Amino acid sequence: MTKLFSRFLKDEGGATAIEYGLIAALISVVMVSVLVTLGPEIKATFMDVQTNLQQRNSL
């Protein structure tokens, strides 16, 4: 990963830098949309786990 960043910083090709920026932006958009879509389900799962752990601890 550090090699990628060092190569990115040393790269003087404008087109390549723009391509890296576009790829990073696309990955960010995909990650945000997945988190927004799955967020409520993930929260519900963690709440179920928390409830089950609290019930087991009270026994």
Overview of this structure, please?
The chain is elongated and about 65 Å long. It is built from two helices and no strands. It starts with a helix and ends with a helix. The protein is mostly helical and 59 residues long.
Which labels suit this protein?
90% helix; 2 helices; single chain; mainly alpha; elongated; 59 residues
Give the CA-CA distance, first to last residue. Answer: 47 Å
- Main beta sheet, described? none
Rounded to the nearest angstrom, the radius of gyration is 21 Å
Tell me the structural class: mainly alpha
Average residue-wise pLDDT: 88
Share of residues in helices: over 70%
Overall outline = elongated
Compact overview of the structure:
With 59 residues, the chain is an all-alpha fold.
Task: Record the SSE blueprint.
Blueprint: H1 2-10, H2 14-57
